[in-house]
Amino acid sequence: MTTPERRRDPRIPASHQVKLKCEQTVGKYIPGTTDNVSDGGAMLMLDHPRLLTTGQKVQIGIFNDPTRGMLTTEDFVEATIVRSLGHGETQHVAVRYAHPQRFAEAI
Questions:
Q1: Global pTM value
Q2: Contact residues for 73 (Cβ-Cβ < 8 A; gap 6+)
Q3: Where are the beta strands (DSSP E) in the chain?
Q4: Tens digit of pLDDT for each residue in 19-46?
Q5: Cβ proximity of 37 and 45 under 8 Å
Q6: Range in 3-7, 47-51, 62-66, 84-88 with the lowest mean pLDDT
Q7: What are the sequence ranges of the domains in the chain?
Q8: Does domain 12-106 have CATH number 3.40.630.30?
Q9: What is d(CA 49, CA 10) in angstroms, rounded to the nearest whole number?
Q10: CA triplet 59, 104, 14: central angle to 5 degrees?
Q11: How far apart (Å, rounded) are the C-alpha atoms in residues 45 and 36?
Q12: d(CA 21, CA 71)
């Protein structure tokens, strides 16, 4: 028996560098990579041992252009953590964008 699909938007597998910022990290960015993206959210793998919590507000920036060396403030979007699973020094975090994006098309 398969579980019915709960996502609003289709996920696209994508592996890109990402930075996540949240109030609790006081200006520090948490590095990681995308596992998949969609217009409504993304699954991220973060290099961060402390578990982020469901409902936490964050900002994420995805390096989708390898020719650019840095992300600017405008590259970050507001999101909410909807699921977080810890795995030792890393964690998988599912986020929902505050406003639907076109990340899936850009990547």
A1: 0.82
A2: none
A3: 12-13, 17-22, 29-37, 41-46, 57-62, 77-87, 90-97
A4: 999 877 666 889 999 999 998 999 999 9
A5: no
A6: 3-7
A7: 12-106
A8: no
A9: 29
A10: 85
A11: 10
A12: 12
